[in-house]
Amino acid sequence: MKAVFPGSFDPITSGHMDVLTRASRIFDTVTVTVMHNARKQGRHLFTLDERLDILRTATEHLDNVGVDSFGGLLVDYMAQEQKGIILRGLRAVSDYEYELQIAHLNRQLGEVETVFIMAATRWSFVSSSMVREIASYGGDIRDMVPRASADALRLKYADVYEERERTSEAVLPDSDSSD
């Protein structure tokens, strides 16, 4: 059975990876599909190509996972690619309420089913927007995202990270001094 894991993935987080890794053990193939909307151009931190590159790197160890993009209705993509299941990750009850509405609409529009996988509890608080916010201040996000995302965020905010490191080094006591 073929599944599609749609999203903006700006960037992919450890929660996404948790759901994706577990789904890769359930489904024959899983396609991570970056859904893009021309009307939302410029709202993402990473370009579409950057997000696709991050995803390819983050998922290269998962043999039955592919990466794609689509601009339009998800149900149209599902029909075009002959995919069977929409995969969605859930972190909390608030996610479920929203995702349930979308699942019902997709079922009505395109006769496609949605399967929900709960993210592990340790990732229930992690979202792409929160990770971007922390990274924008030079915070340590390495445990919240796969290495490909961490590296891309560090490049995107290189000036902030460099300044933070300079400030940290200036605050550290000199270990060579004696009392």
From TrEMBL:
Role summary: Reversibly transfers an adenylyl group from ATP to 4'-phosphopantetheine, yielding dephospho-CoA (dPCoA) and pyrophosphate.
Gene: coaD
Catalytic activity: (R)-4'-phosphopantetheine + ATP + H(+) = 3'-dephospho-CoA + diphosphate
Pathway: Cofactor biosynthesis; coenzyme A biosynthesis; CoA from (R)-pantothenate: step 4/5
Site (Transition state stabilizer): H16
Listed name of the protein: Phosphopantetheine adenylyltransferase
InterPro entries in the cross-refs: Cyt_trans-like, PPAT, Rossmann-like_a/b/a_fold
Claim: Transmembrane helix is one of the keywords in the record: no
Essential cofactor(s): Mg(2+)
